[in-house]
Amino acid sequence: MDTIYAMSSAQGRAGVSIIRVSGADAWFACEVICGDVPSARLASVRTLRNSEGDVLDQALVLTFAEGASFTGEESVEFQVHGSTAVVSAMLETLSSIKGLRPADPGEFTRRALDNGCLDLAQVEGLADLIDAETEAQRKQALRVFSGELGSRADEWRRKLIRSAALMEATIDFADEEVPVDVSPEVSSLISSVIADLKHEISGTHAAERIRAGFEVAIIGSPNVGKSTLLNRLAGRDAAITSDIAGTTRDVIEVRMDIVGLPVTLLDTAGLRDTDDRIEALGVDLARKRATAADLRVFLVSPNCPLPFEPEKDDIVLVAKCDVQTGEYPGISGKTGAGVDDLIGWIAKVLSTRASNAGIATRARHREAMTRGAASLEAALELMRDGEDSADLAAEELRSAVRGLDSLVGCVDVESVLDEIFASFCLGK
C-alpha cells in the first residue's frame, strides 16, 4: 500500500500541529527529514530539513513500529510549531519524497480497519467521539470505540456457532443413533441470544438520540411567548419577537447542552387557522416538527388553550406568568420566572430516556440485530417441526451469524464503508 501523510490536528494557526505519516516508507521519510529514525514510541526532538538541507523547524518526533501504531503500519508523527508556513513547508517536503502521497479522508482509520486494529463498530465510535459535543455523547462514543459492541457480537457469534455445530452433527448422523438430544441446549443458546438482541434493539432509539440530539418543540398559539422563551433559553436573540401575531413563519432551531445531553430547541409558528398561505405553510410545518419531536413544551394562556392533546411526558405551562395565571405551572421568557424549573423538567425527562440507551448507536446496528433476531426466531420455529426441518433451521442460524458479523465488519459491509469514511477528516 502507498505511504500516506496528512495533517491530523485542526487547520489554522496553533501552538502545535501534528502531521502523520503511515506506510512502508514512513520511517524512510523520517530519516530523510530528520537525518535518523528515533527509537520507536520514544518522543525525541529533531531538526527537520527539506531536500535542499534548509531547516524547516524543530519538532517532537514520534515513531511507531508495524503492529504498534493506530493504523497497524510503520508510522511517524511530527509535532511541529503550528504556523501555516511551517505546516505548508512540511507537507511540501513530504510530497517531494518518492512513494508518499496525501491521504484521502478517513484513510488512516480505513487502514486501521483493514489491518485488524479496529472493527467497523469501533470506526463508527471513533467518528462519533470526534464529533462529540456533550458529555453523554463522549461517554457513549467511548463505549463503542472501546470495542464493547464488538465483544457482545463475538459472544453472540460463539453461542450461535456452538448451536450450528450441534445441529450439523445431528444432520450428519441422522441415520445413526445419536446418544444425546441436542435440542434443549441449542434452544437455550438461541433463546439467550434472542433475548440479548431484543434488549439491545430496544435501546438503539435512545442511543441514536444521544448521538444525533434530542428535539424539544415549543408550541402554542400565535404571540403566546414562544420566541421570547427560546431567546431566554438560548441566552441570545435567536428568534425575532414582536407583538404582531404570526411573526414566526419557519422553524427556528437552537442547539443546547442540558445535563450533558445534546438538545435542539424548536421555536415553531403559532398554531391557528389562517388564510395567509405563507403562514399556513409555517403552521403545517410546525405541527409536523412538533409531532416528530422527542418532547413538546406547550405554552397556554386563558385565551389560548392547548392546540392538541399532549403526549406522555409533554410539558404544559402557562405563558407570560408575569401578567397572567392558570391551572398549569407558569413561565415567563421576559422575566425568566420558571425557566430554571423548565430546564430541570426537560433534563429529568430526557435523562430518563437516555438511561435506556444500549451500546448499539446507529440504524445500521438495529437493522443487523433485527435481521439476526428474525432468523433465530425462524430457526426455533423450524426446530419444533423436528428432524425434517433441521437443514432449514441450520441455514437460518448461518443467516443470523452473517447478520451479526456485519455489525463489526466481517462481511457485507462494502456498501457502507465509503459513506462512513467520507465523514472523517484528512488526518484520520
Write up this protein.
Helix content is about 45%, strand content about 15%. With about 425 residues, the chain is an alpha/beta fold. The chain folds into 3 domains: about 5-105, Probable tRNA modification gtpase trme, domain 1 (Gyrase A, domain 2, 2-Layer Sandwich), CATH 3.30.1360; about 125-210 and about 360-420, Up-down Bundle (Four Helix Bundle (Hemerythrin (Met), subunit A)), CATH 1.20.120.430; about 215-355, P-loop containing nucleotide triphosphate hydrolases (Rossmann fold). It has a 6-stranded mixed beta sheet. β3 (about 45-50) and β4 (about 55-65) form a beta hairpin. The two termini are about 15 Å apart. Residues about 240-250 and about 410-415 have low confidence and may be disordered.
The helix/strand series, from N terminus to C terminus, equals: EEHEEEHEHHHHHEHEEHEEHHHH
CATH topology of the largest domain: Four Helix Bundle (Hemerythrin (Met), subunit A)
Mean pLDDT: 85
The CATH superfamily title of the largest domain: tRNA modification GTPase MnmE domain 2
Number of domains: 3
By helix and strand content, what is the structural category? alpha/beta
- Show unreliable segments: 240-249, 411-416
Number of helical segments?
13
Spatial order of strands in the largest sheet? 3-4-5-2-1-6
Report the span from N to C terminus.
17 Å
